[in-house]
């Protein structure tokens, strides 16, 4: 397995503001030492015998069906996917293709802004609890090795927050972010109902136990991975598990994600732009289910 990002008492003295600005430097021919992961090679090799592209696919529509037989089949598929993989692809989820495309475009507009315009969203006294924040890597204030990515994160539920930049963003893209957040939240809630049912509990057991109506928060995150002159030495994101209930991921058609399955790393390839890759998070695995494994993923660039 590749080296994890390590916390250190002596982090890099000058954390970068943006990997975008570094990647677009005309003089860049090799990556700075702070981005080189201390293993050779840093990327786990995908197991060629693993069922690449065979991550379970869940048809979401039967979960909304009035037919018990249709729903029960999907519930059984959910149980197997969570137990055996911890990841699955969701299709026919009802979130419009145009909304997903508009969400990706909104993220692109934000990352294209000049770094000075993003300054108000960096740092802050609340740290990771800032309603809106952007930065680079994962936590560049303590990291010894940086990931090759920039990010934007905003809390969108129970209170919706959206950047006001670039000019006009709040009037146009903010509406996209809010609608996208609402629709994906509805998908996540129904998936949690199906997962709850799949382990022999009432469909609303997870929602009631965690008080999702009042106590749930939703974080919207956009990641930007610019071209890298030495991708074999860097990582977009080191191996990790997600500290949440569920993650719903969409991407712009560029592969790079790998997930761990039975000790092997499997490429996630050809993920349709109108589907979601769902990751079962630590809170669900440990706090409620306690019968599934920690599942790791990482991003190669």
Q: Which SSEs are present, and which pair or pack?
A:
Elements: H1 19-23, E1 57-59, H2 68-84, E2 87-91, H3 97-112, E3 132-136, E4 150-157, H4 173-198, H5 205-209, H6 212-215, E5 218-224, E6 237-240, E7 246-249, E8 257-261, E9 264-267, E10 276-280, H7 282-289, E11 297-299
Parallel strand pairs: 1-2
Antiparallel strand pairs: 2-10, 3-4, 4-5, 6-11, 7-10, 8-9, 8-11
Helix pairs in contact: 2-4, 3-4
Number of strands: 11
Q: What is the name of the CATH class of the domain at 50-111 and 147-223 and 239-299?
A: Mainly Beta
| CATH homolog superfamily of the domain at 50-111 and 147-223 and 239-299 | B-lactam Antibiotic, Isopenicillin N Synthase, Chain
Structural class: alpha+beta
Gyration radius over CA: 20 Å
What's the overall average pLDDT, rounded? 82
What is the H/E order? HEHEHEEHHHEEEEEEHE
Largest sheet strand order: 1-2-10-7
**Euclidean distance between termini CA atoms:** 16 Å
Q: Architecture of the domain at 50-111 and 147-223 and 239-299, CATH level 2?
A: Sandwich
Low-confidence stretches: 1-13, 48-52
Shape: globular
Task: Kindly report the CATH topology of the domain at 50-111 and 147-223 and 239-299.
Answer: Jelly Rolls
Strand count, sense and barrel status of the largest sheet are: 4 strands, mixed
Q: Give the helix proportion (percent range).
A: 25-40%
Give the amount of beta strand, in percent: 15-25%
- Total helices: the number is 7
